[in-house]
Amino acid sequence: MDPSRAWADAVEPVLKLTSDSFGTGAPTQEGALELLSTVLAALVAVFIPVYLLLIHLPAWSFMFPSTSWVTLGFSSWPTLEKSQPRALTQPLLYLLRTMSHFRLAHAYGVFPPDSFPSARFVVVYEGTTDGREWKRYHWRYFATDEHSTPPVIAPWHPRLDHAIFYEGHLGASGHDMLAPVGCTNPYRVGRSWIFRRLQARLLEGSSNPCHSAFFQGTGGSKDPFPDPSTPPNAVRASLYMMRPSSLTEGLCRGRWWVETRLGTHLAPMWRD
């Protein structure tokens, strides 16, 4: 369709409405466009303040304190610590801090279902005895290679596998972004990093409890070093991008993911 003709057809009802309402004869297209722009500007000017004040602000005020990033630590915020009257607020804050350690209340998640792409960035630990061949440690729930079957974990919540999701989405370089997350008191965050500690524990071999707690196949086919007497000489962490394959390929060939190695996330740690 000719664009000019389409524009004329769209403007014609506005021209007729203007002519019938004001009796000024046949108005020009420029006049109709100016009227339409004025009406739209007025609607926007009214709608945005109403939406912000009556919908967005109340919803945000309710949801923000109940998100999983805030629930466990908000009772230690300095603003609340200095709130008045202290005789009323301090006992309440003390009760919240005490009860938060028991995790009796579960918060709402921060992100809507489709806020992340289908591709996953996965941190995978790998061990070696000779420095050339690196063997993977398979996460108990999270995808580790192309043949990792998507598991059903409900109603459980694998905490470390969940943390790996955030760790991988921040790039192929080690960092300590997740150190304060989940800590009920932000002033008690230690300098030791959980992923570095796990890397050191893997150097102790499959006899370490961390191996069976977080990884599959202790002493079995998916254990890269099943013999406790021959632990790896070095452990590193690589970053992989996992893109879902087709459902047919997953069901028929067992290839659920298409992987790409992006780089080294944690440099190799060697046994003394």
Overall geometry comes to flat
Oligomer: single chain
Our count of domains comes out at: 3
Strand/helix succession: HHHHEEHHHEHE
Query: Low-confidence spans: pLDDT under 50, at least 5 residues?
Result: none
What is the alpha-carbon Rg in Å?
A: 29 Å
Enumerate how many helices there are, as a single number: 8
The computed structural class is alpha+beta
Q: Alpha-carbon distance between the termini?
A: 75 Å
Largest sheet: 4 strands, antiparallel
Give the strand order of the largest sheet, numbering strands 1, 2, ... along the chain: 2-1-3-4
Mean pLDDT, to the nearest integer, reads 75
Record field, number of beta strands: 4
Instruction: Give the fraction of residues assigned to helices.
Output: 25-40%
- Strand proportion, as a percent range, falls in 5-15%
Topology:
Blueprint: H1 3-22, H2 29-63, H3 78-81, H4 86-100, E1 120-128, E2 135-136, H5 159-168, H6 194-202, H7 209-214, E3 234-244, H8 247-253, E4 257-270
Antiparallel strand pairs: 1-2, 1-3, 3-4
Helix pairs in contact: 1-2
Main attributes?
272 residues, alpha+beta, four-stranded antiparallel β-sheet
Written overview of the protein:
The structure is a single chain. The mean pLDDT is 75. Strands 2-1-3-4 form a four-stranded antiparallel sheet, with helices on one face. The chain is built from eight helices and four strands, in the order ααααββαααβαβ. By secondary structure, the chain is an alpha+beta fold. A hairpin with a 6-residue loop joins strand 1 (120-128) and strand 2 (135-136). Helix 1 (3-22) packs across helix 2 (29-63). The longest helix is centred in the N-terminal third of the chain and has 35 residues, at 29-63. The radius of gyration is 29 Å and the shape is flat. It has three domains: 3-66, no CATH class; 70-115, no CATH class; 120-270, no CATH class.
